[in-house]
């Protein structure tokens, strides 16, 4: 069973930074799901207000089913984050582990 890493990189409005960090702090305590090994948020070195969310799933099936298990509070927080992101700054990446 191959792991999957899903990442989202984006830039937020500078005036939203404090609010963003508070939302992320709450989100990190809530994001859990069947098959989700970890959820982390990083700031890109040398690029203020550029962040990357990284989700690590145990398998491709767990990744495919992830949207089915989002609770209402997580959905609200994700919407808040979406409203803080600068237009055309979002980039998605999905990596499938190579099986040996």
Give a short overview:
This protein is of the alpha+beta class. The chain is 32% helix and 30% strand. The protein has a single domain (4-96), classed as Alpha-Beta Plaits.
What does this structure look like?
It is a single chain. With 100 residues, the chain is α+β, with helices and mostly antiparallel strands. It has a single domain (4-96), classed as Alpha-Beta Plaits, CATH 3.30.70.100. 32% of the residues lie in helices and 30% in strands. It has three helices and four strands; from the N terminus they run E-H-E-E-H-H-E. The protein has helices at 17-30, 60-64, 72-84, and strands at 4-11, 36-43, 50-57, 91-96.
Task: From the structure above, extract its key features.
100 residues; alpha+beta; Alpha-Beta Plaits; four-stranded antiparallel beta sheet
> For the CA atoms, what is the radius of gyration?
14 Å
Question: How would you characterize the largest beta sheet?
Answer: 4 strands, antiparallel
* Residue share in β-strands: 25-35%
> Remind me, CATH topology?
Alpha-Beta Plaits
Topology, element by element:
Elements: E1 4-11, H1 17-30, E2 36-43, E3 50-57, H2 60-64, H3 72-84, E4 91-96
Helix pairs in contact: 1-3
């Amino acid at each position: 069973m191959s792991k999957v890493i899903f990442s989202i990189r984006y830039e937020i409005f500078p005036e939203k930074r404090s609010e963003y960090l508070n939302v992320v702090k709450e989100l990190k305590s809530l994001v859990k799901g069947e098959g989700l090994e970890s959820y982390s948020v990083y700031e890109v070195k040398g690029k203020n207000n550029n962040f990357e969310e990284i989700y690590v799933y145990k398998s491709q099936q767990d990744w495919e089913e992830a949207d089915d298990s989002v609770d209402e509070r997580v959905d609200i927080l994700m919407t808040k984050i979406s409203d803080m992101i600068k237009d055309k700054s979002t980039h998605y990446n999905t990596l499938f582990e190579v099986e040996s």
